[in-house]
Amino acid sequence: MSDSDTTMDAGGGLRTPIVAVLGHVDHGKTSLLDKVRGSAVTSGEAGAITQHIGATAVPLETISDIAGRLVDPDDFDLPGLLFIDTPGHHSFSTLRSRGGALADIAVLVVDVNDGFQPQTLEAIDILKRTQTPFIVAANKVDTTPGWNPQPDTPIQQSLEAQSDRAEQRLNQNLYEIIGELSDNGFSADMYWRVQNFRGNIGVVPVSAETGEGVPDLLAVLMGLSQRYMKEDMSIDTTGPGSGTVLEVKEERGFGTTLDVVLYDGTIRTDDTVVVGAKNDPIVTDVRALLQPQPLAEIRTEKRFEKVDEVSAAAGVKIAAPDLDDALAGAPVRVVRNQSVEAVIEEVEAELAEIEVDTAENGVVVKADTLGSLEAIADALDEAEIPIVRAEVGDVAPRDIAVASTADETKHEVILAFNVDVLPDARREASDRNIRLFEDDVIYQLIDEYEAFVDEMEREQQ
Ligand code: GDP
């Protein structure tokens, strides 16, 4: 037996792939996930599907039930898929982990009638930067005029069964999406024509409303993850846990808690953990690990259930003392078989990876999470806009002070992404004539700033 076989035995095989669902607001991310969950319930495996914090685990048997003959469980070594819920419209940018993306694979949801929109492009940038393999769900095919639903039919046949007019219209929209992907440097095609999904993007027409195409989508996701996990992943699911903070949240009775996606190893109650924070990493002991109650939708006093141990990949809420300064997007590491100092160093190194190159003169950037800060810094770098300060957090008076020392008017600017502007800071900004740009779409934020610079330059001429 080779070394790697031994590791495999100790680790209990491949871990569940983490799937992120990304896309522009209203293109159907939530509906698509709801459809997958709902289909799992109607397939009679409601008990098998588990709600995690920030994630939904769908076991292989359930996927196979939904996908029918498209997924034969005997062909797969994967336990299932863990879909990360990305509530709100920005949290996908927090989905990072050691070495890149938290998600192993992603589904980019595009409204087939609406095509590529700012957040679609933002998602594409993140997927590119983190080299995350992905597929495109061309959603809302049922809204095509003249659409004739074909439930329980593979989507390719559904398309063929449409009237000429509906088929033509849909094909035109689908080819526009393929064209957009190609403009963004990807070779893409309808999924049944894509042989090797590495570097080639498969487009799967779906309807989160009727469920058409959902079996196809799951089958393609399974095929893609199986290939990807086999090639690139040898994960020991019994080691000390590593995870990423999705959200830092107050929870009545528990104080400040962390919603975490664990992507490696295990975490147990009483474990010591190191968490990336605003200043020095936090070292604390896990007081409780929480999961939603099985019937969380029924209003109960007790919303959470305590668990003793969680293994990757999974979402979990961590209750522990001293979590106030923890950062969304930051790493969480369990200390086991290693000194606390060594783990602190690892967490610091991981946080340093996203430190932004700053110039002597430039704009001030404030963002809600490390991931979004990183994404904005990247976009600004691409647009050749220098940054003087980039930080996570609300816009405070000291940011105004930094912005006002810029010696070029066009840099006396603060770009605020998804954060609040403290009242004092807003007053000072107005007194000192500092421009504040606030948005929750990166592209728009940068566009607004560029429009302002253009206007300034026109005025100067
Ligand atoms: P999200 O913001 O990306 O999570 O989008 P939602 O899932 O909230 O969907 C936005 C709207 O589009 C909702 O009103 C959904 O009911 C609707 N919607 C989503 N998917 C479909 C679909 O496949 N067909 C139709 N007809 N409507 C859809």
Structural overview:
- With 461 residues, the protein is α/β, with parallel strands linked by helices.
- The chain has an eight-stranded mixed beta sheet, with helices on both faces. The chain has an eight-stranded antiparallel beta sheet with strand order 15-14-20-11-12-19-16-17.
- Strand 23, helix 11 and strand 24 form a beta-alpha-beta unit.
- Helix 3 runs antiparallel to helix 7 and helix 10 packs parallel to helix 11.
- It starts with a helix and ends with a helix.
- The N terminus is likely disordered.
- Guanosine-5'-diphosphate (GDP) binds next to helix 2.
- The site of guanosine-5'-diphosphate (GDP) has 15 residues, from helix 2.
What's the arrangement of strands in the largest beta sheet?
2-3-4-1-7-8-10-9
Total helices: the number is: 12
- Which cofactors or ions or other ligands sit in this model? guanosine-5'-diphosphate
Structural class: alpha/beta
Distance between the termini: 75 Å
β content, as a range? 25-35%
Largest sheet: 8 strands, mixed
Q: Helix content range of the residues, please? A: 25-40%
Strand tally is 24
Look at the structure and give the mean pLDDT: 86
Q: Which value, in Å, is the CA radius of gyration?
A: 23 Å
General form: globular
Low-confidence stretches: 1-12
